[in-house]
Amino acid sequence: MPAPQHVTVLVADVEAFSSRPDTEQMRTREALYEEFRAAFGDEYWASCWREDRGDGLLVVVPPGIPKAVVLGHFLPRLERALENRRRGDPLLRIRIAVHAGDVHFDEHGLGGHAVNQTFRLCDSAPLRAAIRTARSDTALLVSDAIHDNVVRGGYDSIAAASFHAVDVSVKETRTRAWLHVAGDDEAAVRVARETAAAAARGSAAEDGSGGRGRERGREREPGEAAGGQAAGHEADGDGRDRDPAAGPSTGGVSVHAGGDLLIESDSMIAGRDITVGDTGPGRRRSRWRRS
């Protein structure tokens, strides 16, 4: 198998494509390709591997074209072009996802984890919510790798502050990505906040009910024994701490981990070896084991 190539992967999907009649779908496809070709320029567009997806397209940008050029020049041109045709005919509102990684090419086409990851970013709930509610006609989601290596690179053509972290969960993919909505940063901020709130609610639900889940998972304080009592203290039958130096309690239960269980008068408990009755000097002791 030939060695994979490290490339930039872009997936675009037209919003509300399948609800259109066939003739409008065909016009939409033609308009989509025209806008991408114009944004990349004929020479760069010809050098890219393109795969039609019906309601969108997959573009593999070769290593010779810097990622910063894709994010800082090609995509802004596309955003401006769609803004100029604002809700024109046919309507083009596009979700775009960008990632980078190793891609395998064979006689059937291409594949690899990087391709799968990009499609899942494009299909994610945060990106769908952004294009559905944004005033602009594009919504862009880039992977964490693209954000770390390109968006944060300090390029004048890329406004890093306009990318907002969101959690993505699609099929087996759980990752962080970065949302950008050209001309409507408020939409990106709103979706990022809603995504964070939903993630917090999900974590609370997995943790248990309210604070009880957090209590179960907290670490013991220094000197605290199992069950929440401080070291050197026992618990009376009512749950209060008792200092062993204060002498035996007048009732209740004493529990000794790893050994016999001692039952005071008027108490009932089941455990390992059990002693019933008063335990003072000279007292009669009865003992049995549980079945």
What is the molecular shape?
globular
Number of helices: 8
Radius of gyration: 32 Å
Strand content: 25-35%
Unreliable spans? 211-250, 252-257, 265-280, 282-291
The percentage helix is 25-40%
Q: Assembly state here?
A: single chain
Please report the total strand number as a whole number.
Answer: 14
What's the helix-strand series?
EHHEEHEEHHEHEEHHEEEEEE
End-to-end Cα distance? 66 Å
Describe what this molecule looks like in 3D.
It is a single chain. This protein is an alpha+beta fold. The chain has helices at residues 22-40, 42-47, 67-84, 113-122, 125-133, 144-149, 185-207, 212-217; strands at 5-14, 49-52, 56-61, 94-106, 109-111, 138-143, 164-170, 173-180, 234-235, 241-242, 253-255, 261-263, 274-276, 286-288. Strands 1, 2, 3, 4, 5, 6, 7 and 8 form an eight-stranded mixed sheet that branches. A four-stranded mixed sheet has the order 11-12-13-14, with no helix packed on it. The chain starts with a strand and ends with a strand. Mean pLDDT is 80; it is low at 211-250, 252-257, 265-280 and 282-291.
What's the topology here?
Blueprint: E1 5-14, H1 22-40, H2 42-47, E2 49-52, E3 56-61, H3 67-84, E4 94-106, E5 109-111, H4 113-122, H5 125-133, E6 138-143, H6 144-149, E7 164-170, E8 173-180, H7 185-207, H8 212-217, E9 234-235, E10 241-242, E11 253-255, E12 261-263, E13 274-276, E14 286-288
Parallel strand pairs: 4-6, 12-13
Antiparallel strand pairs: 1-3, 1-4, 2-3, 4-5, 6-8, 7-8, 9-10, 11-12, 13-14
Helix pairs in contact: 1-3, 5-7
